[in-house]
Amino acid sequence: QVQLVESGGGLVQPGGSLRLSCAASGSIFSTNTMGWYRQAPGNQRELVAAMTSGGSTDYADSVKGRFTISRDNAKNTVSLQMNSLKPEDTAVYYCNVKWRGFIRSTHEYWGQGTQVTVSS
User: Hey, which of 54, 94, 103, 119 has its CA 20 to 30 A from 8?
Assistant: First the structure.
């Protein structure tokens, strides 16, 4: 089975930086999208950043210019460098991988989440 394990979360002051990492294992199709989502208390889970195996990226407007996503296709890892952190970035961050199967099926897996708290 596919497993995703996040690491790197923690407490940081406003303006600080954190780097989140996610290691995926199992039977993962090579053509896929890996990304990061976040969910704050009372809020819906939202896309933060995603990157395809081909290198295309997508960022939430709120993090553009501050966050950078990267991945290693051979290792099935994805990272999120978060700079200039703001209190509103506080959330549980989840790693995600997904790909299209044949017919109209979609395969999607989630990590357990890692807490990021931005506070002075």
Answer: 54
